[in-house]
Amino acid sequence: MCLEAQRKEERQRMPLKLLPVRTAGKCYFQSLLLHLVPVLLLLPLSRPASASTVVTHLPGFDGALPFNLETGYVGVEEETGAELFYYFVESERSPGTDPVLLWLTGGPRCSVIMGLAFEIGPLKFVLAPYSGGLPELVYNPYSWTQMANILLLDSPVGSGFSYARDPKGYNVGDHSSSSQVQTFLNKWFTDHPQYLSNPFYIGGDSYAGKVIPLIAQGISEGIDIGKQPIINLKGYMVGNPITDPKFDENYKIPSAHGFGIISDQIYETAVKICNGDYINPVNEKCVEVLHTINNLISEISIEHILYKKCDVVAPNTIYDTSKRKFLLEESIQLNKPPAQPTVDCFTYGYYLAYFWMNNNLTRNSLGIKEGTTSEWIQCNVGLPYTYEIPSSIPYHLNLTTRGYRTLVYSGDHDLEAPFLGTQAWIRSLNFSIVDEWRAWHVSGQAAGLSIYISLFQM
Q1: pLDDT tens column, 295-311
Q2: How many CB atoms within 10 Å of residue 106?
Q3: How much is the CA Rg of the chain, to the nearest whole Å?
Q4: Which of 6, 44, 201, 389: CA 20 to 30 A from 116?
Q5: Which one, of 102, 103, 109, 119, lies nearest residue 1 by Cα?
């Protein structure tokens, strides 16, 4: 999952939600609609962190920003000089008391500008035909900053404007990148102690959903041993999360059948000869039918099956697998722009972001260090990354049994992390159901399903 597509252009349509609340030795999961509860998360801004920049104006945005924005770098590994870049948007409601939300983007190694300008942040690009110059930005009145302080982080190293002085610093994986996020938070809160008492949440989608429970568990363990600063962790949220191939991959085929992408005949053949395991085919006939299915799926937009299949705004490869060495010089040279999609493509905004982020006026406004990231790329897919966590389910189970609040939401048109798989791994936790799956409504119309689940503490 190299391309981190716009994970739901309309975040109001996310059906599956879980929110546990601790009560008298029990943990009750409450279902909430994401678009009705951007209040779930939150955080404020005060004095800037070291090496930070207070941003009052942005190129392409008319006038002063109607919200408080801080950007900056935080060192997370002294040996390689790795530094993570962040955007901190203060809550537009009550920054002193609203929760702090750390937001991560998946990929891995997609820029968190996706969260800032395409998902939950206060900015959005004007989707007009691009003829050169600086793309325009406008205010997003539906930003989660209406009720939360949001700390958006380019992680792991190599995402967005995060960088390392030593090329070895880019060779990370699930565990090392999660540890670096914890280091970042410890330093950021040390520089921003006024936010330590605010409720703290971690959120993200797609592949970020795989590592968020690991990061939350690391913070929780630090709290247990009294590691300073004590972060006021309350819970986490994951959207269309990559979780476990047993569920994510195996449920793609029944989902594709339900969406009408594959026929009854093809689906029934796959069920019969693959014995429900579509990850490790055990016979040649299974291999053949899976090849047919994959060819059909490749013809649609897997991130949102109703979207037009568009050009992928992707970078050139910057990791030479034949020489097995990191090509630092090539990675920071400005290459030819990505292919231009049509304006009606969901990737068109990413195309505009490429030119905006690579403009010197933008770099100066954001406080980007010279010589660190010569070319901003939406998803740095060519860098080495070690996928070390086969399943994040044990982390979900551990955190929820300890009483942390959890929200799981899943859009119904994502075939990369299909909601059928999300429902299945939730069932595998064997929690007691308080209220069966039921429809939730928007403007009197059924828009999805929600469920209440309870967990009795040991």
Answers
A1: 999 999 888 888 888 86
A2: 28
A3: 22
A4: 389
A5: 109
